[in-house]
Structures are given as structure tokens and as C-alpha cells.
Amino acid sequence: MAATSSQRGRPSIREVASAPMPTAYGEFGARAFETPSGHVHLALVLGAIGDGGSVLTRLHSECLTGDALGSLRCDCGAQLRSALRTVAAEGRGVVLYLNGHEGRGIGLVDKLRAYVEQDAGADTVDANLRLGLDADLRSYDDAAAVLRALGVRSVRLLSNNPAKADGLQRNGVAVESMRALGTAAHRRNRAYLETKQARLGHHRPAGNTLEELPAAPIDVGRLLGPQRPRADRPSVVLKYAQTVDGRIATRTGDAKWISGEPERRVAHAMRAGCDAVLVGARTMLQDDPQLTVRMVAGASPLRVVLDSTLRTPLTAKVLSDDAATLILCRPDADPARRRELAATGVMVREVAGGPGGLRIEDVLRLLRSLGVASLLVEGGGRVITSMLQAGAVDRVVVSVAPTIIGAGVDAVGPLGISRVSEGIRLVNRSVYLAGEDVLLSFDVANGSAVPSTENHGEAER
Questions:
Q1: CA–CA gap between residue 237 and residue 313 (Å, rounded)
Q2: Less Cβ crowding at N or C end of the chain, within 10 Å?
Q3: Within this chain, do residues 155 and 86 fall inside the same structural domain, yes or no?
Q4: Residue 393 pLDDT > 70, yes or no?
Q5: Catalytic site residues?
Q6: Given phi > 0 = left and psi -120 to 50 = alpha, else beta, which region is 54?
Q7: Could you list the residue range(s) of the whole structural domain that residue 323 is in?
Q8: What CATH number should be reported for the domain holding residue 241?
Q9: Contact 307, 327 (CB under 8 A)
Q10: CB–CB of 296/184 below 8 Å?
Q11: Nearest CA-CA partner of 58 in 170, 152, 149, 134
Q12: Lowest-pLDDT range of 52-61, 143-152, 207-216
């Protein structure tokens, strides 16, 4: 293919290959451009560029760890998916994947070395500086050259980073506006996101974040609390939605939907903020939840199902996509059934059993050994009860819906408490609104252990 002519002495670039690229968001035209620097950048083009004016555009810096491997240290993968979805929704635009930008331009090896500095207490800027590197080595000259080669004259830029807009404008591509891409923060990347705003001048994310929920702003970081894992278990947040009269489902088990859409968006953002989300087998069988973060831009957590006898059907939604799923069962569970589930790509692990199902202490110890530092427990009632009996809950978040259904499924079952003074005390109350629902969050005072002669078992609802 012919080289693209340079402008004002700028180096030329060359389009070297093109092909249709079907994605989950639609079919893009993939066009590869080789630059004098040796980097090959990939432009994913949707629709007709036409006169090149006002093209919705995303400049996406290469991030192997976030884009391909799903690292939770950054929000790159979530932003890439969000950009593809946004361009697809409009039907015309460009997502330009810029190679050579790994780690803000310092490369993969130094990026990993910077991680070590971050783990020692440095933020992402100081980590680079400690290595003798600039905070950001990226250039957007190539990006502007590629856009000009595509016929793009002006863009509406999907980015939180003003430096990208400046780089395009210095190189002859007009930036009509900037639209910040939102992500739901995770405990592992919250400091990274804050550093981008405080020290690199990034705009505050907007869009699919909680700051723009209707009714009231909700900081999911505050809802989840400080999340301090222990050596033997993750930090555990217990979250459930109930009616005003304290039911999490009707007498028939129906729980869709007790809460409204704004509250469910909060719930999805809470999932995105944790390493794992856990439910019992009965909840999985009754509700068939997917347990992903479809309503926000963020990373779906590890999905954990407590299923002592492996009743999970092969058609379950938690087995239907590429998000990770872990099923915990007793050692005496059917080996053939275990092989069937493992063949779907799900992880199946054994945990010591007891009269109530699985021992909660052993469940949490196993999760911690797998690297789970923060766990969101969503139910059902027996899981909630078992977690409280085991003294394993650090924080409780309850969503109260303005609905009364009468007899139904209780959120918490018997705890063996005979006196009010023995009850689990909740402190540090916060109250939020999400649409018509009210969210109450509390810390659990001095652990949640309560008197009980029962084995701490798995919830089957």
C-alpha cells in the first residue's frame, strides 16, 4: 500500500493491512498503520468517515496487562470495552489502539518494576520517578498522523486525559469536545485513578459511574468500607436487598426485582469493587444470576457458588460467559458431576463439609489462599445467616425497597440469640438514596460472632 504523505515535515506513515474484525460490539474495519518509529498502530473504524468532521474517537494506549490479562491495577480494559461499545452505539467512529504506550510509554518490563515500587507505597507517578523515568513518556504524534490518513479532520474525543487532546491539536487534528469515560473503581485501582486526577490532570470520569446515578451521588468506596483482609480470610461485605417488611423474596422464592434499576447499578458497581462475589446454591438455582457488572464499566469479579452436592446445572448463567467461576463442594460430591462442570471451564474445589453444608471458615480460608482479598456476599438467607454465625462479616449493606409483600423469605434466619443485648451491633451508619430505594451501610462492631450450637454451614438460598 502507498505511504501516506507527510505534512509540514512530519514523518510519513504507511497503511500495511486491513480486514473486517467482528467483535461483541459489531463489525469494525481493522486497519494497521506502520510508523517510522517501528510501531504498528491499529485503527478500528466503524461506519463511514465521510467528510472527516466530528468523528467519535478513542485513543487507547496499549496495556497488555489490563486489556488482555484483565489486571485490576488499572482501568484500561474497562475503558477499551466502554469505548468500543460507545462507538458501536453511535454507528460511526474510530478506536485507535496505540502500540508502544505500555505503562505510559515506559514499556512492559519497567511497568512491572514500577508495580514493585507501588506495592512499597509509591503512587503511579512516583513509582516511575524512583526508577529514573518520566511520569509519562507517551507521544500522540503518530495518533494524529493515523487519523489524518483515515481522513479524520476533527474529533469528539473519548478520554479523561487532556494530554491526548493537546497532542492531537498540536498535530493538526481539531478536538471539538472531550467525553470522559467512566469506570467503577476497584479497591486495587482506586489509588491509581485518584493519582491520574490529582497529579496528571485527568478529568473526573463520567457516564456509567455512580456519580451520575439519578437521585443522589453514591460513593461505592464508602459503601464497601476500608476492606482490610486478614491472613485467614478476605474482608467480607454482606449485601442484600429487602422489602420494608424484611423479605428478600416472596413465599415462592421470587426476588426479581425487589430493588429498582438505580440500586441494581449500585450493586453492580459494588461487585466491580471486589475480588469475588459469593452466593449459595439455592440462590443460584432459584434466580440463576449472572453475577457480572453489566450495568457499569468495570471488571467482573470471581463468581463463587457454595454448592456442596454440585447441583449447578450446565445451563446456569454463571457458566455461560468468560468471567471466572468457582464452585465449592464437599469432598464426597459426585466425581462424574465434578468432571462435567470442570469441562465447562469452571473451577471446582473441595471444602470440608458439615451438617449445614460447607464450613464457612474453610470457604474463606480457601478464597484467601486464591488471592481473594475482598468478598461481596449477596445471599441468600442461609448464606447470610451462616456468615453472621461464623463471625465472618466486616460490613453490612442493606437496600430497603418501598414494598411490602407479607410472608416470605427472611433475610436472616435464627442466630441462637435469646437476648437483645447479645445481638450483633452495627456501627458507623451511612444512608444513601438510589432511586426509590434506601441503602444503609454499617461496620460490624467487634466481629459478628454470635452464640450458636449449629455448624457454620453453607447457604442453600
A1: 27
A2: N
A3: yes
A4: yes
A5: 136, 138
A6: left
A7: 220-444
A8: 3.40.430.10
A9: yes
A10: yes
A11: 152
A12: 207-216
